Amino acid sequence: MTEHYDALETRDPAEREAALFARLPDALRKAMEAPAYAERLRGIDPASITSRAALARLPVLRKSELPTLHKAAPPFGGFVADQPGSFARLFTSPGPIFEPEGRQADPWRGARALFAAGFRPGDVVLNTFSYHLTPGGFIFDASARALGCAVIPAGPGNTEQQFELIEAYRPVGYSGTPDFLKILLDAAASAGRDISSFKRALVSGAAFPKSLQEEVKSRGVDAYQAFGTADLGMIAFETPARDGMTVNEDLILEIVKPGTGEPVTPGDVGEIVVTSLDPHHPWIRLALGDLTAAMPGASPCGRTNMRIKGWMGRADQTTKVKGMFVRPEQIAEIGKRHPELGRLRLVVTRARETDVMTLKAEAAAASEALRDSIAASLRAVTKLGGNVELVGAGVLPNDGKVISDER
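Structure (tokenized):
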């Protein structure tokens, strides 16, 4: 069994750096064909941006800005030069943020992550990420098929039907959230269903704490983590070294001081900023709001690209619940729908290895009808179910925090 996807993964780091920055000026030229990038990068000579120091002088584009920008200039906020019909698929994520999928093979760059997790051509993979409007299901589907795997497009939920598929097709691999993997394992054990064909998994979209890792491993599934977004696809992934996450090829990843575009001191925790070089849809310094730190030295697995410690929290209050981003502006929208409420705070915790969110709302007059109405708004706005706790006026702190991630 070969250890690496291709020779790019083991090339000299200086060779990789030179190749990436040789391609960057063309990506900048293509980006500047789009009106929003042309305005943001006005006066920039793409030919002069050939180093990390030069790149760091360009403005960052914050992912948290995209919902407002996309609403003002639909569908892509003026950041895509080509027409929507030039892409293969068109998606939306909460915000809303609109994302196009390219027509090339493996448009989300995920085959490497699956390969590092032990997936190989000919494997059958149960993909439980959602295929409905959001790109998650298609990211992992396209990546697995690019690797040569057969994909069962299962999506989440419907465990009984999932068992029928698993027992018929005997998939060796699983892709989805770690939470749903545990749901499948638990439900199969309770119902006496045979899902022992699962041997490996690539999980993303939710926390995968050590306790859950050990439980999944004890049930015979070797699970690896990947870090990606609906905008960029696969950004970094675990390898057999189990020592941080390796940054994907064809991306330039920076770690900056939160709220700025200034690179951190090597090893310090900062915000992830990514530049992609896809000429059809380049991203220039997209600040994700996720925190991480770079790791020193090369990976013991032989891959030579930059390694990061993985997800270490949020630089802003946006957080991810069950694989879906929840944003402060969504909590504000709930407040607009219920003007009788005071302050709101969404508290995100975990219970029984599953994400749980509780919206605390100040109300002068609490009632079951009000609680039910707020819960319905919470689901409508975030596309996720959650609890609602009504508290008295003035109980929640006046500190500006509307999302508290306590996991």
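The longest strand covers residues 341-351. Residues 13-31 form the longest helix (19 residues).
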